[in-house]
Amino acid sequence: MALQPTATVPVRVVDSARGQEVVIEGRIDVRSAADLRLALHAAVDDGVGDLFLHLGDVEIGDATGLGVLLESHRRARREGRRLVLASITPRTARLLRAARLHRVFHLDVAADGPATVAPLTA
């Protein structure tokens, strides 16, 4: 598939042997959520197999960004697909752990090495 530019967040969708690879760049927050939601819904609806979201160049700015990812995860599950977070940064991993979403999302540890998360301190 081709590049699906949104007004605020570049999204590139590529079909691969293991499923669909979605590369997202930029900041996910309340300003970019609507555009990203549309792009992810299209990726879920138009593809088959696992949906890998590469978040290495993403900054999750607020709870709305997490909400878009969680909504896409649930939509993929309803379609019989699995949404997998790949190339996550240590900051994103800490954020997922703080929100306890590391228990919900599937993490791709094969491509990026072990997904270790530093313990949170109060």
By DSSP (H or I, 4+ residues per run), the number of helices equals 3
Shape: globular
Rounded to an integer, what's the Rg over CA atoms? 13 Å
CATH class: Alpha Beta
Helicity level: 25-40%
Mean pLDDT equals: 81
**Main beta sheet: strand number and arrangement?**
6 strands, mixed
Question: Which keywords apply here?
Answer:
single chain; 122 residues; alpha/beta; Transcription Regulator spoIIAA; 6-stranded mixed sheet; disordered N terminus
Structure write-up:
- The protein is of the alpha/beta class and 122 residues long.
- It has a single domain, classed as Transcription Regulator spoIIAA, CATH 3.30.750.
- It is 32% helix and 30% strand.
- It has three helices and six strands; from the N terminus they run βββαβαβαβ.
- It has helices at residues 33-46, 63-78, 90-98; strands at residues 3-5, 10-16, 19-28, 50-60, 83-86, 106-107.
- Strands 1-2-3-4-5-6 form a six-stranded mixed β-sheet, with helices on one face.
- Strand 4, helix 2 (63-78) and strand 5 (83-86) form a beta-alpha-beta unit.
- Helix 1 (33-46) runs parallel beside helix 2 (63-78).
- The longest helix has 16 residues, at 63-78.
- The radius of gyration is 13 Å and the shape is globular.
- It starts with a strand and ends in a 15-residue tail after the last strand.
- The relative contact order is 0.15.
Please specify the SSE layout and strand pairing:
Elements (H helix, E strand, L loop, with lengths): L2 E3 L4 E7 L2 E10 L4 H14 L3 E11 L2 H16 L4 E4 L3 H9 L7 E2 L15
Parallel strand pairs: 3-4, 4-5, 5-6
Antiparallel strand pairs: 1-2, 2-3
